């Protein structure tokens, strides 16, 4: 582990210990207040029984345990909230340390649902799925944030966009203290914050209350109040009863459209609280002159006041969502007036929620990538160039592998546009190609890559590594591969690509394989792409001689003390050895 990385780990360890102590402290207080509330409730019952069945205390003494219980309930809620906050921060640092210790697999959001977003490389180079780049990076609390991260990992940006992202990520990675505040947003939710649903509600048409409805609702309230006065003075219940029934009928029929229109957002009080917390957390960041971060902060700072107003309206609406409240609230038209106020807010802010949630999502993704940069200080920000095709890197390694992974230097550019990578089994050919693909994806997001130095152009990864047959679809592995190759060739006609073709056309004989491989790579190179094909078929050695701008490189093995050993170091030329027989013998096959 490098010295810089060790400093990061020490900071995380100290923060984890401090917050574990906070959790223990708040947990003890939580138990204490729970016991005190139980004691106050017990005292209330004893005083009540003593007042009813004896002459020990006056009923006025009930006020003491009752007020004590209410005070303890509010204090207990604050203690529990502080405990939840500390637990969220503990989870943050535990996950952060798991990334540094390479034990993060299976502990995050896998992004499997987004595999279709990158059909030409998403599964082949572990961008999505368990143990993927998405799982390593994603800490987004919102559904929109998770979707946007998937989009950044699967779409090709402009050069200007990449450079802008790099600037924002550099700025955020200098001070990640705000991550603790972000980690506690929406702590009461066990699911991602439903930002897409809130955005759809915001963009839908509002249902304003008619003036006649407001007049009727107000008249019914007045009639019920008059009925209460008559009931108290004359013991006549007719007016109050009639007003109550009319109010319930009004809620059931006339106000139904407004109640239904506001019901979705009314059920999302926890989501609105979480979004409000996110806005407040982001509004406190220091953009340090970064235009993108300044725009995000100003957007969300302006969202705080209207979201707080909507949250209060939702909270008022929720008061009536119980057996007693729904009756009393309906009589006094609370659901109608709160629903009408929500829809009035909806009409005044139609569509703006989408702007806010998009800004939150953008900040979440930038934060995820800034965290990646902060936790890997030895990684390099790539130099992104234009008007050429290039993938050059020194000491390039796979970012999903442990620190012990071997790095390699390689260069693909206008002069050397194709590398024919040969090697024995298990020598690391596929891993090297995946390392190139994953690091290219990282470069396009604006994040640093696992290399000492890197220079790339804007290119789309085009990968054929994990093509599989399908019994259900009646597709052989060879047919699946040539179908993938056809799609890669089609893509290269419109977009520069970094093609990574592992064991190209391995499902056919050497003669057909040589003709097909040469034709395919010639087409890709003609379309302006660069890349690597791997093989251990000696018949493909001559492709480098027949295709201009090509070179042979290889990864090999050594036999040390009768055992196979791999150094995973890229070397020039075509491989001259094979270890297939030794591997077969190593697993117990009788090979003579």
Describe the structure in your own words.
By secondary structure, the protein is of the alpha/beta class. Helix content is 57%, strand content 10%. It folds into 3 domains: 3-149; 183-209 and 255-375, no CATH class; 383-586, Rossmann fold. It contains 21 helices and 12 strands. The chain is elongated and about 110 Å long. Strands 6-7-8-4-9-12 form a 6-stranded mixed β-sheet, with helices on both faces. Strands 1-5-2-3 form a 4-stranded mixed β-sheet. The protein has helices at 3-53, 63-100, 133-137, 143-152, 159-173, 179-183, 195-203, 211-234, 238-254, 256-266, 269-283, 291-301, 304-319, 323-331, 334-348, 352-375, 429-445, 477-492, 510-526, 543-546, 580-586; strands at residues 383-385, 391-396, 408-412, 418-423, 453-457, 460-464, 497-501, 530-535, 550-555, 557-560, 563-566, 571-572. The model has no long low-confidence stretch (mean pLDDT 87). The relative contact order is 0.09. Strand 6, helix 18 and strand 7 (497-501) form a beta-alpha-beta unit.
Write the layout of secondary structure elements.
Layout: H1 3-53, H2 63-100, H3 133-137, H4 143-152, H5 159-173, H6 179-183, H7 195-203, H8 211-234, H9 238-254, H10 256-266, H11 269-283, H12 291-301, H13 304-319, H14 323-331, H15 334-348, H16 352-375, E1 383-385, E2 391-396, E3 408-412, E4 418-423, H17 429-445, E5 453-457, E6 460-464, H18 477-492, E7 497-501, H19 510-526, E8 530-535, H20 543-546, E9 550-555, E10 557-560, E11 563-566, E12 571-572, H21 580-586
Parallel strand pairs: 1-5, 4-8, 4-9, 6-7, 7-8
Antiparallel strand pairs: 2-3, 2-5, 9-12, 10-11
């Amino acid at each position: 582990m490098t010295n810089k990385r060790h400093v990061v780990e020490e900071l995380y360890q100290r923060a984890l210990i401090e917050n574990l102590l906070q959790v223990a402290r708040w947990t003890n207080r939580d138990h204490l207040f729970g016991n005190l509330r139980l004691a106050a409730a017990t005292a209330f019952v004893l005083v009540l029984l003593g007042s009813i069945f004896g002459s020990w205390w006056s009923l006025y003494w009930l006020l003491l345990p009752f007020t004590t219980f209410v005070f303890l309930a509010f204090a207990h809620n604050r203690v529990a909230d502080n405990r939840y906050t500390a637990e969220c921060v503990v989870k943050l640092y535990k996950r952060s340390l798991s990334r540094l210790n390479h034990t993060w697999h299976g502990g995050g959001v896998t992004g499997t649902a987004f595999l279709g977003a990158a059909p030409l490389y998403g599964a082949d180079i572990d961008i999505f799925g368990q143990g993927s780049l998405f799982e390593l990076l994603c800490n987004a609390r919102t559904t929109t944030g998770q979707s946007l991260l998937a989009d950044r990992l699967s779409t090709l940006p402009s050069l200007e966009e990449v450079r802008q992202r790099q600037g924002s990520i550099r700025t955020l990675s200098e001070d990640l203290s705000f991550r603790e505040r972000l980690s506690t947003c929406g702590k009461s939710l066990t699911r991602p914050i439903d930002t897409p649903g809130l955005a759809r509600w915001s963009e839908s048409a509002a249902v304003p209350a008619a003036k006649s409805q407001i007049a009727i609702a107000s008249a019914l309230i007045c009639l019920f109040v008059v009925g209460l006065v008559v009931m108290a003075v004359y013991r006549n219940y007719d007016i109050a009863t009639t007003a109550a029934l009319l109010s319930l009928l009004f809620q059931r029929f006339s106000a139904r459209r407004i109640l239904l229109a506001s019901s979705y957002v009314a059920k999302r009080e926890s989501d609105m609280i979480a979004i409000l917390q996110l806005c407040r957390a982001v509004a406190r960041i220091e953009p340090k002159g970064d235009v993108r971060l300044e725009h995000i902060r100003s957007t969300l700072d302006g969202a705080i006041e209207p979201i707080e107003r909507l949250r209060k309206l939702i909270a008022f609406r929720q008061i009536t969502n119980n057996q007693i409240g729904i009756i009393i609230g309906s009589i006094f038209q609370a659901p109608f007036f709160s629903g009408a106020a929500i829809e009035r807010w909806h009409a005044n802010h139609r569509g703006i929620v989408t702007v806010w949630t998009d800004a939150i999502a953008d900040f979440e993704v930038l934060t995820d990538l800034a965290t990646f940069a902060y936790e890997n200080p030895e990684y390099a920000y790539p130099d992104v160039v234009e008007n050429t095709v290039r993938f050059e890197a020194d000491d390039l390694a796979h970012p999903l592998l442990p620190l012990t992974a071997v790095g390699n230097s390689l260069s693909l550019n206008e002069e050397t546009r194709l590398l024919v990578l040969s090697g024995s089994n298990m020598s690391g050919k596929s891993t090297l190609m995946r390392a190139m693909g994953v690091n290219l994806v990282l470069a396009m997001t604006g994040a640093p890559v696992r290399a000492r130095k890197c220079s790339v152009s804007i290119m789309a990864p085009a990968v054929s590594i994990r093509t599989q047959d399908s019994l259900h679809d009646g597709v052989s592995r060879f047919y699946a591969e040539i179908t993938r190759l056809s799609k890669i060739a089609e893509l290269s006609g419109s977009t520069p690509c970094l093609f990574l073709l592992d064991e190209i056309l391995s499902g056919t004989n050497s003669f057909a394989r040589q003709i097909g491989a040469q034709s395919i790579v010639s087409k890709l190179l003609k379309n302006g792409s660069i890349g690597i094909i791997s093989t251990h078929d000696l018949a493909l050695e001559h492709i480098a001689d027949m295709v201009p701008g090509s070179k042979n490189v290889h990864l090999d093995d050594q036999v040390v003390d009768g055992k196979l050993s791999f150094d995973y170091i890229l070397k020039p030329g075509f491989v001259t050895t094979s270890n297939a027989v030794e591997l077969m013998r190593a697993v117990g096959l009788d090979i003579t």
